[in-house]
Every structure is written in structure tokens, then in C-alpha cells.
Amino acid sequence: MRLRELTEGVGRIVKGVNTTPDVGPDEIKKQAKKFGNSVDKDGRPPTLSKKVKGSSTNVLYNLGLAESVDFRVDELNVVKTLDFIKQAHGDQLYGKAPYWTHPRAVALTGRKIFGRKFTPDAVKTAFLHDVIEDTNTSLDELRKLEFSDQVVDAVGLLTKDKSLTYADNIKKIISSGNPLAMMVKYADNYENFTGDKSDWDPKKADSSQKKYLKSLDALGDALGVSYHLGESTSNSNACPRTKASSCQCESVNKITEAKETVTAVCVLEQSDAVEGTILLKQQADGPTMIVGKITGLEPGAHGFHIHEFGDLSDGCKSAGGHYNPDGVDHGDLDEGHVGDLGNITANEDGVASFSIVAERVDLTGERSVVGRAIVVHSDVDDLGKGGDEESLKTGNAGDRLACGVITLKETVNENFADGKKKGKSRPGRVKRAGASCNGSVTSLRKRAKNSSGEKAKMYHWCANMKSGKKK
Questions:
Q1: Which is the catalytic residue, given 337, 360, 372, 445?
Q2: Of 201, 235, 269, which one is at a domain's C-terminal end?
Q3: Does residue 89 have an active-site annotation?
């Protein structure tokens, strides 16, 4: 009996229930055991929780496939697919990482973009999308391994036809109307477009970016994606890696190559009450020191995280989830998302002063948090120990009170030199007008509204500079 026959209509088969001459009692248990899985007396697989250790469990959880006791044996088989590609790709590398980390990242990105439309079959397709092209595996072998026809057909479409140009291969995928192939290719090119290319030849990198962007436009239109990278022309300065309003990737790459000490700053905004400035500093190959002072908080502990995007176009909501390049469960400063910084504690006056040594946070390299956002939350972060699903995602830290984009401090120094660097600011005008660039973007806008003449203009200018605008 094929695995998918069990999962597509037979239902749970337990002793004395739904037995037929060709399907005996406890058939689910027998079939699941073949794949190294176990089920309870009702044919249900065990609940996966944070207590279950291992990368396979984390992959299932972060792909949204371990959300309830009722997920199917087919979804458990996603782990077997991941194990298969690890073996198939062997010692191959993707950049400096094992090659299998790339298809895993494609699967995570697909799940993030398309949600539940990115089914277990889509996840398996993402895992397998390069296996025909880059290994000795054939489509017939995939069929013998009992992958569904839908998965095998999609993998076939995703395997590059070397007689066609790149653009024609994309057209072939779109014209097929195959949703698995189109979603996986979109996620694949999203990963390719946003990946680190600091070691690439500049001309090759530029040509590849244009190629990926054009394909994302075409695939995004075919899939009905409401926002995709190809539409970023509405803000030509937007960073493809972090979605911040201005991109500092080039500066990060230069600092990375020079192995210099780097300093960044984050000014909180998007709140009428909560304000603060956070300084981040990292010496070459060392941990990142994070020091700051935040006011306007309720007394007590507040979750404090680095989020994936520096996009504040929809307030703190558009900053995305916690920065989690490893695809693991939520945790604390030592173990969990890279962006998990634990809690900061406000005193009776609502002031939180803090100093954090973040071993896993980098300001340089391909995992740089420059351009991403820091968010302070309304509630205490339970550090993933709350015992529920949300705890493993957000730590039940509550609403997003305020946020700000992490910016290289060199840029801030130039923008707010107040006349000390000709051409980088308006010489002396801010000070002469009686204005100041201190405070959040929101507070500066309010001061501009309540001022007039030159003073109002200077408050507007300060706000624009802090928000990444050029004037």
C-alpha cells in the first residue's frame, strides 16, 4: 500500500474499525513504522513540542506542520524528505553552508509568503527542487520513493532545461499553471535575490539581481502576490534584504571586508509615549554590545527583540516576525531566534536602562541586523517556556509598543552634524532656528506641527533624515 493512499481517504484504521479484507487492523501503525514514525491507539502521530529535541522537529514546527495533534502521516514524511536531500546533496555547498540549507530556506520562505497554501507537497517540492539538476537522482527514482505525482511533476518543471534561456524556463513554469512549481520558484528566487553577493563579481551580481527581479515580477503577477520585490520601484531606495526605506548593505559589506569595529543606532518611533535610543557596537569577531534607555513604559518587564524587516510603512506591524535565520523556536538571548534579546525592565518611572551582550547578533556579514528593526513589547517575554504554541513563536510578549530601524552610526553622524560637515547637513540652521534633532520621528513631526517658519522646517528636516529620506 502506498503512503499517500493511507492519507488520502482511508482515514484512521484501528482495531475493529474500518477494516476490510485487504486492509487489516492497525494498518496506520504498521505503515507509519516503515517511515520511522509512531502513532497512538487512534492512529494519531504524537504532538511535537519544544521539549522534543532535534533539527527535524524545529523544521516541522517552523513550517507550520506541527500545529495540532491531527497533522497527517504525510506531513511527518516531510522530515524524511529533508533527510533524503541531505544525503543526496552530500558535501555540496551553497556559498559557505551545506547545500541542503538552501532548499530548506526556500521552504521556510514559501511557507512565510504563501501561508497554508504552501502545503506539505509544496514543502517537499521546495526541498527537492535542485535534486535532479545537481545530483544523480532521477524523476523515476523519486516516483519509486513514493513521492506524489504532483511533487514529481513540479520538480520536473523546476529542473532547468539547458536548451532554454533563463527567461524561457520561467515562462515554461508559468505557462504550465502548476501552482507548486510557481510558488517554489518564487520562493527560490526571493532567496536568491535577497542572498549575500558580497563575494560575487559586481557585473555578475548586478545582472543576476535584474534577472531575479524580473522573474519575481512575472511569477508574482501569475500567483496574485499582492506585494513582491518586483514592485519595489515605488521606493527605489528600499532595501531588498531588510525592506528598510534606505539600504546600507554596501556600507555593511565594506565594513565586513575591512573587519572594522562597527557602531549602529536605533531610535524608537511609532509611539506617542514610548521613546528611546539604542546603541549597538561590535568589534571584529566579537559579540555585539547593546546599550540603551527607553522611557514611557509601564513599570515591569517588556519583551525586547530584533525583527526581520526595517519596514515601518505600516507601523511596527510591517517589521515582520523575530529575526530568525536559523528557523528555530523562540527562546532567550542564548538559545532561540537570533533576534531574541529577552526582556528589559522599566522602573517605577517607566524608564528602562539596559546593557546586553548579544553573542549571536552581528552588525556585519550576511547575518547583519543593520536595516532590521528593534521592537519593544507591552508584556513580559516568557522566553519560549509558556507551554503553548504562541510561546514558541513570540514568547507571548504582547503588542508592539514602539520600534525603530537599526542604522549605521556613521550615517547618523553625517546627517545630524548640524553644520560640522559641509554638504551633509544644513549648516547651523537647526540650532539657530531653536530646533533639535533629538527624539523620535513621531515626536519631531509633532514639534514641527506645533511650530512655524524656519523652526518648523528644521523639525521636518530632522524627521525626514531620521526616517531615511534625503531632504
A1: 337
A2: 235
A3: no
